[in-house]
DNA sequence: GCCAGGCATTAACATTTGTTAGAGTGCACT
DNA sequence: AGTGCACTCTAACAAATGTTAATGCCTGGC
């Protein structure tokens, strides 16, 4: 059940069986969310953190003019709101972008982990630090990359992250995002989003149809994106 | 010496004297950096984390075309690279934007804190989570705010953060950033940065001269920015 | 099979933002 | 006082991006 979490945390450092048991023991009940449903509401003060077992979700903020911006995409094995364990109040919402199967980890049990299992605590902390590293990469992409490069970077990042939790299929992966939703990731209008996707298709490095992305030329895609996976900390080493 | 750190961490939850002593015990030597010097190099693997005692620094990445993007601004009381304690490898650089007085905290002693002081560990973790929350707010600003609103938001954020560590003077604060550097924060060209600053000046909510920002109409500035400080977690509560 | 609704795509035009170039300003150094 | 330099500010034009609107395609419900 928690395989994807073990794969996600375990990519950074070895996870012992005892630690896996502690994580499993922190879990409470499961739940399914339909596409478009809010998994966590902005302004709420959750007493548990949500782990995605399967599906795609996103953090987002909505502005007064109605504009929406996604600040992260979350896949299987990701805690969507582990930060709320200490931040307490959600300053943004989390929405299901596909049918999502999730399980909730109780904050009081996470707290017990911080008191009794320092190595596991560091791994959970690290998980939120990688989140932050991804945020920084998005800031760079939004500020200084061309839009084509930004999109290419997103494809690279998602491919690598999905590969860790075994949700890729060869060089393909499922990306159930409409162009309007993608526009809310890159901060573009829908029309321009369409142009940018067209441009990336035109260079021939990806095939993008039916919500499935197939990478045709990984090397060239990585070049266009200037993608360097260092920020994902995928090296297994003592933490 | 560590007053600004105590103020920064202590805004979220009470810091005991014992915890202050643990923090002080983690510190090793101090150092001064001149404006423009790199405090931490991209790609390095530091064995200590850097706390700013005074000055302004920034995290940044440089792209192949020479473009630079700042991903955060760090003020007194901030650890600029606490994340490197667990991420290990720096995927970005940190540069001094003013003369910086810093002190280094040894990673082995931080590790000891995670093993012996769970509440303090949570506060340090929280510190990095607030970092992440600020990143998300920047993503929203870059993607969906007008440039004027983005700039106004930055001014609000810096004012509030500097107030916590007592680096404001009434409604003024020192902001030693050239327009070119500011452009690397917002992801704009220098020319357009100049236009945007002009626009914010024109509405009359700030006075901006000699690297000093004075907020003339806080209420209106906050409105332009749609600034909601929730993300900074400034409420003191058990963590 | 027909229809309604969501989504992708394109066109025409408006607005924002970037680029290049140059003028003005203040300050450190001689 | 004169010079050089970094920074601010402006102008003119080019390129990127947004807006509005329309078209076509697919799919689920009937």
Automatic annotation (TrEMBL), chains A, B:
Recorded superkingdom: Bacteria
Entry keyword annotation includes Transcription: yes
Tagged with keyword Transcription: yes
Transmembrane segments: none
Record organism: Mesorhizobium sangaii
Domain called HTH crp-type: residue spans: 145-219
Keywords in alphabetical order: DNA-binding, Transcription, Transcription regulation
Example of a GO MF term: DNA binding
The name this protein goes by in its record: CRP-like cAMP-binding protein
